[in-house]
Amino acid sequence: MSRILVQPIGQKRLTNVAVVRLKKHGMRFEIACYKNKALSWRSGVEKDLDEVLQSQTVYSNVSKGILAKSKDLITAFESDDQTKICLEILEKGELQIAGKERESQLSSQFRDIATIVMQKTYNHETQRPYTISMIERLMREIHFAVDPNSSSKKQALEVIHELQKQFPIKRSPMRLRLTVPEQGCSSLIEKLNAWSAKIASKDQSGSQLYIICELDPGFYRDCEALMSTLQGRFEVLALSVHAGGDNHVDHYDDDHEDQPPRVPKETIDSEAKLREKLEKQNASTSSATTIEEGKQNKCGTCNTFVGDAKQFREHFKSEWHKHNLKRKTRNLPPLTEEECTADMEVGDTKADLKEYSF
């Protein structure tokens, strides 16, 4: 005697799924996907189609379980190959997500945009950078709405333009080192003045002029074209410079993603000026030693000289520098590397005692 499996009459099929919908030739076509897999497929992480689709079937309404008619598929896609049509819908269709998922996604993107804005701007009245909470509050005041179909970087630049109309907010300048022949000096200075660039140092060696300046990122392309015309060269020292504190190159600057690795914003004087300063401080040191130190970079937080650019970047990742940064926020003097190691060991011992105390 055969037994028949009876399904509940009130059961709703294909409800707990992610639906991708495509409208074509006035008709709606849908496919049922596993949650989060559709995005993984579009980003190139997921390669197996069976891991993405719950079934390689095209529907006109997934929630009601209504299949698309073959004649409609042929009219819209000129084929009734379900797999081929599923791939097209998956690539071009609109992903339908639940309300809570959409809210979480928009909230996360809102935070990302605010973070980018914070890293790109500062308050030109106080000469201090904004905090992430202040940026989020200002974005709400201008009634900014996140566009899920646009990149966070692009929207961040649009937010900056809107905020500049109402609040004392300004793009953080770039720090550049420009090198031009002597005959192009006047043209370069004229342009930098027109761009309201701040010249940090200027030094002339032979027939070459070396200028370190801070420039608004909006003039980057113009500066690049000018340096090409003047047959000079330039180097990006920092993509985002704030007034005060240690600064780092901005990770999210979409205008210049092909630039050299980031370099901290420590005060960068010309070699001649730095060499002269070191000679005054170390009169008893031999001239060869003084010249060698003049080529080094100084970390203002740790009050020490570090070697070349690579060692300088590694220093900023060290526990020594991070520990001194924490001390700096508490207005405490910096420690040497040995003192820092001892201080951290004492701190770890206290933490262990606190953790295991009852």
Task: Walk me through this protein's architecture.
The protein is built from 13 helices and 13 strands. The protein has helices spanning 37-42, 70-77, 82-92, 99-120, 132-141, 152-164, 185-194, 220-229, 271-281, 287-294, 309-317, 319-329, 337-356, and strands spanning 18-24, 27-33, 59-61, 66-67, 94-96, 121-123, 169-171, 174-181, 198-205, 208-215, 233-238, 297-299, 304-306. Strand 12 and strand 13 (304-306) form a beta hairpin. Helix 4 crosses helix 6 and helix 9 (271-281) packs across helix 10 (287-294). The protein starts with 17 loop residues before the first strand and ends with a helix. Its main location: cytoplasm. Associates with the 60S ribosomal subunit. It is found in: Cytoplasm; Nucleus.
Q: How are helices and strands ordered from N to C?
A: EEHEEHHEHEHHEEHEEHEHHEEHHH
Average pLDDT number: 75
Q: What portion of residues belong to β-strands?
A: 15-25%
For the largest sheet, list the strands in their spatial order.
9-10-8-11
> Any low-confidence stretches, pLDDT <50, length ≥5?
243-271, 284-295, 352-358
Counting helices, strands and paired strands, the structural category is alpha+beta
Quick one: biggest sheet? 4 strands, antiparallel
The first-to-last residue Cα distance is 69 Å
Q: List how many beta strands DSSP finds.
A: 13
Describe the global form.
elongated
List its salient traits.
three-stranded antiparallel sheet, 13 strands, nucleus, 358 residues, elongated, alpha+beta, disordered C terminus
